[in-house]
Amino acid sequence: MRFFVALEIPSENLLQFKTIQDSLHTLIPQARLTDLDKIHLTLAFVGEQPEVVKNRLIAIIKQAAQGVPAFEVTPAYLDGFPNIHHPLVLWVGVKGDIDKILLIRERVKDGLEGLHLPADERRFIPHITIAKFNNHFRIDRNLEVSLEKMMAASFDPIKITSIKLFESEPQNGLHKHNTLAEVKLS
After folding, report:
1. How far apart are CA 143 and CA 155, in angstroms?
2. What is the pLDDT at residue 14?
3. I need a labelling partner for 152 at 20 to 30 A (CA). Which of 11, 61, 144, 169 fits?
4. Cα–Cα distance between 182 and 79 in angstroms, integer?
5. How far apart are CA 105 and CA 101, in angstroms?
6. What is the CA radius of gyration of the chain?
């Protein structure tokens, strides 16, 4: 099974991501937009593991959630990987209770290391992927300014109430995300 741990974006916040994606598609028609039902904030990509690992991952998530109350983050800016000027991925960064995201992320990462599972060592930036590109796309300064204006709107806070374990299942050349477990925050 192909596992990942994430914070799911509640359905009541998806409309604002649709608005962002619609504006983005107007500016960059060749962007491949992330399906709204796959919008999430990844804490850890575990990858392909045997199904028996599932219960251990759920235990890690339960430990990571201990003592962390529900919190809010708000869409704040647009950026890209590897960078905004030559993105393969465009994403929305968030502001707000980032410290809680970082705490949960570190607990999950420590749990994965305790199981000798791979943990991404790159600097973690809380983000929500909204689009991808098939090849290197260039964003010049004029387009960057347009993207900044697009993100200058006022966005509703996103209430984070749980951590989820997902399975990413291949389906017709794409991936379907199935929720395997949900652990509520206190």
Report:
1. 21
2. 96
3. 11
4. 29
5. 6
6. 17
What domains can you pick out in the chain, each with its CATH number? Answer: 2-184 (3.90.1140.10)
Residue 144's pLDDT is 93
The mean pLDDT of the chain is 94
With b for 16 or more beta-carbon neighbours within 10 A and e for fewer, the 76-110 pattern comes to eebbbbeebeebebbbbbbebbeebbeebbebbbe
Answer for the pair 35, 171: CB distance below 8 angstroms, yes or no. no
What are the structure tokens assigned to 125, written together?
A: 């930036």
- Kindly provide the residue ranges of all beta strands, DSSP E only, lying in 106-148, ordered along the sequence: 127-132
9-19 residue pLDDT tens: 999 999 999 99
Q: Which residues pair with 8 in a beta bridge?
A: 40
Question: Cis link prior to 75 (omega < 30° from 0)?
Answer: no
Instruction: Provide the whole-model pTM.
Output: 0.92
User: How confident is the model at residue 174, as a pLDDT?
Assistant: 77
